[in-house]
Design goal:
432 residues, Immunoglobulin-like, Tachylectin-2, Chain A, five-stranded mixed β-sheet, five-stranded antiparallel β-sheet
Length: 432
Amino acid sequence: MFSGDAQQADPDDVLPDPVRFKVFDGLDHPMGGVTVTFYVPIGGGRVPSESVVTDSTGIVQTIWTMGPFGGAQTLEARVNGIVRATATATTCDPDECFPEERLSSNLSDARLLLLSTYDSSGQTVHPDVVRGHWQTTGYWMAVTPYPGGDATHENPSIFHSRTSANWDVPPGVTNPLSRPAGSGYFSDPDIVVDTDHSLWLYFRSVINGQNIINVLRSPDGVHWDAGTAVVAVGSHKLVSPAVVRGAPHGPWQMWSVNAGPIGCSAPTTTIERRQSNDGLNWSKPTDVSLEQPGQSIWHIDVQWIPARSEYWAIYNTYPAGTSCNTNALYLARSPDGINWTVYPSPIVRAGLIDAFKHVIYRSTFFTDAKATRITLWLSGAQYSTSAGYVWRTAAVATRFSDLIAIASTPTTAISAPPFRRDLPPPEPDIGH
């Protein structure tokens, strides 16, 4: 055993770190080129390959996915059919791993994240989170600084966490990952794990009257390519791209908001979907039936939930006919990504916590393997005449049943302040 022993994860989840074994000869010299066979005798877990060959240092590694039950699990490493080493891990039921005091029934326990942004403001907006695999283990967050609503700092940045709670800039990364060469601004990052375990980070540039969707790619979360432009339309016809990889209705799918040329002053907006075979070449958009009565949708996040065979979307809104000073975050569900069921009440309103007193903005979420527990990363702002809008990101976990109860009840336990028509739009010029 070399590293990765005695870890813990949820049932059906991947351990945070790879499990590594090292093979020596009789003189304690590391042996390269030796075939090591893996076997899971206890727990019903799985590894991606039954056998792997040691590298020149004698090390072999694998990713270990836990079985469906709680308790101790074991992984054996065999050479020539003989068990040479074992690794252990444990799983537990969600109620045991995440006791009730760590879950919030109404999301009011949201805790602010301390993110070290490249501009030193710590103000962030538009988080998006994925869990990596293989080289990209742990959680990855794409987010943009937005100090006081200054879009010149709103450039895609990356953070990493082993636990989804404490986030750091990965060693070797210099944020932002990209910034404009001249005028215009960047915004709206969305991060995806490809089937080869690489990370793809989409973001929107607003330059010369266009919305251009770009993608950066990385094999490990540290080394990123120079980026590729994949879609270009007029401003602001492609706001907040939300990309899904590997769902049953298309290899790559992208949902976005079409607000038309006046952006967040648009009295109404529409949700569109594009499809792609490679994540680079995208189809023309088609409208989907996602509308929130009396509201205009401004930003959106969409994910495929395998445990429930459906898509979930969360999206922030402003009352139709006002501005993009969004004060509500809603949930919708769909079996196909086209036809959506919406709920009457927001899952979050402005005023949930002091930091979100005046705006609740684009947010994201992550579920456990059984989709019974949901972690949300929320962004929003508080306004003052001296500091302008101060933007923050917070995290909170809840149960699926509690989230649906909040969304389904016309009068929820979360009080909502009146929509503040007197506040300035929190966006640059004619759209964000």
